[in-house]
């Protein structure tokens, strides 16, 4: 168990250190309060000193924003190479997370935050961290993310394809990009399934919140098996399946990628970018060496019924960023003894695709998301 140490009123104090991003224990920790100036806080954070906040909660949030503005004063480096721009952007994001992650708060027993004007964060922390194991120090930035995730879980995210809301859990990728959901909702089913969807089986691999499994069930498929390697995602998918009264049609299975048996339709929406995630939520975006993509392709033939199809939902953002070529994708499909019979494309609708200040705007604005229909070859 990692521990931070500091001195308060000439007394040595310590607390358990917790970071969902596996950030290292701060080398030095000092107490900070409402008298702390933003310039001093920023300088010390850049030097690696953590600031354990004991002042007003709202003042802590304002200090965090002030530190963020100081980071923004130094414009990030840029390059004419899309791949180098991506890596520079990732490096800049890592620096930001490191500096802002130095402003800490102490959670007491039962995840209570005792700062002045602090909200009740106990339920949000229980959902993200599990039962309390005693006092622990966390980054304020992380705690704000935990609270935000709790609000999303309560309110849910509207999914027009379902006519209802999906409720994401902390650390599970939320279906905020509707284009990939709409592709699964509106692409015609394989011919064998169109005639008898009530006797068909579909797999949803990497289900996350369970949204695509719910869409498939909503389309009349009688049996859907949803899998994931992330225990948080499995719990989230089970809860959403229960909320939607689909427990008789959706089976949540895992942890793992492929379930046992074969299906008429196997759907997979893997992380789109071949890079290393730095936080649990990034596991829905970044897939080192395209491991999940290749695992899906390699196992597809062995799990499809005769006449069945695999649906690969994938953005070409990695190609536009120079992280993967189209030929590499086609070669991987061919190596798995699969054939492309159709490709349905859609353009992004999310706000970042129109944000000209985004460092990756050129690639995002041209991005295309596709549903690749795959069948096995003899």
From TrEMBL:
Residue span of region Disordered: 69-92
Molecular functions per Gene Ontology: methyltransferase activity
Cited InterPro entries: DNA_methylase_N6_adenine_CS, N5-glutamine_MTase, SAM-dependent_MTases_sf, Small_mtfrase_dom
One GO term of the biological process aspect: methylation
The keyword Methyltransferase appears for this protein: yes
Domain of life (superkingdom): Bacteria
Leader sequence segment: none
SUPFAM superfamilies noted in UniProt: S-adenosyl-L-methionine-dependent methyltransferases (SSF53335)
PANTHER family, A to Z: HEMK METHYLTRANSFERASE (PTHR18895), MTRF1L RELEASE FACTOR GLUTAMINE METHYLTRANSFERASE (PTHR18895:SF74)
Name of protein: Class I SAM-dependent methyltransferase
Organism annotation: Streptomyces lanatus
